[in-house]
Amino acid sequence: MASFDAELVALELGFVGIAAPISETVSQQHGAAHAGLTFALGDSAAGYAALTTIEGEADVMTAEMKINLLRPAIGDRLVAEGRVIKPGRRLIVVQAEVFAETHDSRKQIALLQGTMVPN
Amino acid sequence: MASFDAELVALELGFVGIAAPISETVSQQHGAAHAGLTFALGDSAAGYAALTTIEGEADVMTAEMKINLLRPAIGDRLVAEGRVIKPGRRLIVVQAEVFAETHDSRKQIALLQGTMVPN
Amino acid sequence: MASFDAELVALELGFVGIAAPISETVSQQHGAAHAGLTFALGDSAAGYAALTTIEGEADVMTAEMKINLLRPAIGDRLVAEGRVIKPGRRLIVVQAEVFAETHDSRKQIALLQGTMVPN
Amino acid sequence: MASFDAELVALELGFVGIAAPISETVSQQHGAAHAGLTFALGDSAAGYAALTTIEGEADVMTAEMKINLLRPAIGDRLVAEGRVIKPGRRLIVVQAEVFAETHDSRKQIALLQGTMVPN
Fold first, then answer.
1. Across the interface, do A62 and B37 touch by the CB < 8 Å criterion?
2. Whether residue D56 has pLDDT greater than 90
3. D29 and D95 Cβ atoms separated by less than 8 Å
4. Chains touching B by CB (3 or more pairs below 8 Å)
5. Do A115 and D64 count as a contact with CB atoms less than 8 A apart?
6. Do the bridges between strand D105-118 and strand A7-12 make them parallel or antiparallel, or are there none, so unpaired?
7. A neighbour chains, 3+ CB pairs within 8 Å
8. Could you tell me which chain D residue has the CA closest to the CA of C111?
9. How far is CA A89 from CA A53, C35, D105, in A?
10. What's the average model confidence in pLDDT over D16-32?
11. CA quadruple A62, B67, C64, D27: dihedral positive or negative?
12. Residue numbers of C between 66 and 85 with CB closer than 8 Å to A
């Protein structure tokens, strides 16, 4: 989270939203580079969402994650919304949507689907 | 590449290897955080591999990418090897393996499979 | 569709639902076998949903598709709901949910995410 | 296996090959329909490969699987080769390649990557 300057913007059972500014550094990157940043934010939101569904001091790890990039990450900030599709003791199936926002627009730029495992 | 302190270690038609040190910052991260870093390196290697198969000044973008995390990213450096499975004018199917290396060991920590599109 | 004895149950712009009975043949299969059948139904619903967003006599092909299996396919019939997440001339990003239904219950058994290409 | 008229053509620890004829029924299908059949064969090969790495009478289930379709399934028979990338007690990461063969050619038509869980 710290490396993206990210903050928590929503927290419910099975749902977490995090936001991070789109810095000049990020916005100047081209092509495939965007995928890594968008992935990291979506994957983090999905992981935190999974954490809300498990008890005790457990951590979760990403077992596998798939991302479809829909649009370029243009805007003021990115918001990633992670949700749990299917909780479980061994496998937690998660989804995340990532949006690029300006003060008056919000466009989905990515969709992620994957599996977290309690650790 | 710059943000990971990464360097090119192999370059052939349809194959690119890049390496990045596992910094203290990275090695201290837990859980889902690793996925983002490993993804970014594997995705970059796959994107560069795709670039070697297209002509002119085109760039490539990640359309979609899937990662399976196999082991924790423990070691001195990460090496990502990207290769083109199927070149194409519209879609380039790629794969990447990511390894964690020490001076005398090399373990695969991730496998990626996805699609690049010329841009 | 014919090979699953499937029927169309919903049709809107960007959304298609198809249903197929869970035959004895299917319900007697174990383990990994279920994945193929559930995949085929979800992939078909997603493909038909993509078709509703393109003009003319074009066909669509699955470029890539990912499925997470959530629960066993137990019930009277399977219903697959495909939707278009992002239309496009070159790439259409789609999603599908597959449910197992009895006369009084409906449980999601799979989630798919992938890319269709007009052909 | 029976539903594809499939036969075992290779069996080693962590590696299984299965083959199935490309029937008229299959070859006459268009578009997205191919994905289901190719997926089922690749997923089965990957599942059997996973089975070779676990002890006792356990079964395996597909937790998630991703397929990239590379070329149309044209030829006399399909051969799917599944292999274990990372064995494990809880998660088995697998890969499969599917080829379309004639008497004198062999072309890769799909690549799959996914996770099996012992059951």
1. no
2. no
3. no
4. A, C, D
5. yes
6. unpaired
7. B, C, D
8. D64
9. 9, 21, 47
10. 72
11. negative
12. 66, 68, 70-71, 85
Distances (CA, A) of B73 to B22, B29, B77, D104: 8, 10, 9, 44
Residue B113 lies in a domain: no
By the 8 A CB rule, do A69 and A87 touch? no
Residue B31 sits in a domain of what CATH number?
3.10.129.10
Q: Which residues of A22-61 are buried (b: 16+ CB within 10 A; e: fewer)?
A: beeebeebebbbbbbbbbbbbbbbbbbbbbbbbeeeeebb
Report the domain count for chain A.
1
Report the run of H or E that residue B6 belongs to, with start and end.
none
Instruction: Quote ipTM for the complex.
Output: 0.92
Of B90, B63, D32, D68, the residue nearest C61 (C-alpha) = D32
Angle, helix D33-51 to helix C33-51, in steps of 10 degrees? 160
Q: Which two tokens stand for residue D113?
A: 């990557």
- For the beta sheet containing B15-21, the strands, ordered from the edge strand earlier in sequence to the opposite edge, are A7-12, A15-21, A77-86, A92-102, A105-118, A60-69, B60-69, B105-118, B92-102, B77-86, B15-21, B7-12
pLDDT tens digits for range C30-89 = 544 478 889 999 999 999 999 999 988 789 999 999 999 999 988 899 999 999 999 999
Range(s) of the domain holding residue B31: 2-64+75-95
Q: What is the CB neighbour count within 10 angstroms for residue B70?
A: 22
Between strands A60-69 and A105-118, the pairing is antiparallel
Q: Using N-to-C axis directions, what is the helix angle for B33-51 and A33-51, rounded to 10°?
A: 160
pLDDT tens-digit series, residues B20-58: 998 766 655 554 447 888 999 999 999 999 999 998 878
Q: Burial, A93: exposed, middle or buried (Cβ in 10 Å; 0-12, 13-18, 19+)? A: buried
Contact C107, C99 (CB under 8 A): yes
